[in-house]
Amino acid sequence: MILREANKPAEGIIADLHVIRVAPRIGIITETKDRNKIEKQLMQVLPKEIWGEIGMAISFLGREICRPTNPKCEICPINQFCQYYKGNN
Ligand code: SF4
What we know:
This protein is mainly α. It has a single domain, classed as Helix-hairpin-Helix base-excision DNA repair enzymes (C-terminal) (Endonuclease Iii, domain 2), CATH 1.10.1670.10. The chain is 49% helix and 0% strand. The chain is built from 5 helices and no strands. α2 packs across α4 (51-64). It is globular and about 40 Å long. The termini are far apart. The mean pLDDT is 93. The structure holds iron/sulfur cluster. Iron/sulfur cluster (SF4) binds next to α2 and α5.
């Protein structure tokens, strides 16, 4: 976060509670519990150029739309790419 504010390239991806819930739902990672493994998997599948922003973006999606229960899939901007959504529709 500090590196982001200083316009330095991110060295990792934020994996907060929202990211831990949302990223496996989307289907971009398989780990669902271990925060370090989740960050590692995210770093393997996402280009480094977006590391500084993508964690915050997924976290924001989790706070506003992809809630723990009753995610608002119908209004989600990435539902066409989401495994959870595809599996339920
Ligand atoms: S489509 Fe649904 S499950 Fe998938 S990321 Fe959006 S809100 Fe979450």
